[in-house]
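3.2 Worked example (two chains)
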Amino acid sequence: MDPFDFVIQNAQDALWATLRLSLPLLLVGLVVGLAISVFQAVTQIQDQTLTFVPKIVAMVLTLIFLLPSLLMWAVEYTWQTFEQLQQVWG
């Protein structure tokens, strides 16, 4: 494998890994934020802390729940990168 191909492929893989690791938390934040916004529109409550606190709690709980699989994906990506690096420069 050419070193330039390795760099391009590794950059693509890094973007996909970032998306794969961040997407669950972003989706939870989006869904909870949308639900809170609908609740605020219906009840006409305009408190700013009502928006942030539930989103933070939901995202932390999601992170705690998904942390083992997220770490597994990150370690798998790192091993693949090191194996490819060894093939290129080895």
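3.2.1 Second chain
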Amino acid sequence: MKQNDVPQDHIKTLGGLRKAMYATDEQGNYTVVPSDGWEAEELVLNQAIEEFERQTDEALARCRSNISSPLEYHMYHCRMDQIVLAQSTGFFKWQVKRHLKPAHFCRLSAKKLARYSEALGLSIDQLKSLPDE
């Protein structure tokens, strides 16, 4: 992409900030060019956020029905999935999947809960609870 082609669509999701993008100058060298964002980028980002909100709502319903553990709700609320949460905690994906089950979650050690707590930016008490209705 050439310097003059860098999108400047003033998207709302950047909140008036700018981000760096790489583009080529007149000599063909790569250079950093500030951008106000790209409309297509904002559209995709908003769709992803809506999907995480949908998953969060569904996870909350499953947690309240004791089908899933509070970990699933907090995972989606923090815009993570099982793979990202596994990478953030150092657990294997199969372990995260297992910990999403209430019977296994309630038996987690304080050390394992602390790993989830740190990755999600929550206290252990917050991790074990759900928001009020």
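3.3 Remarks
Residues 41-128 form a domain with the 434 Repressor (Amino-terminal Domain) fold (CATH 1.10.260.40).
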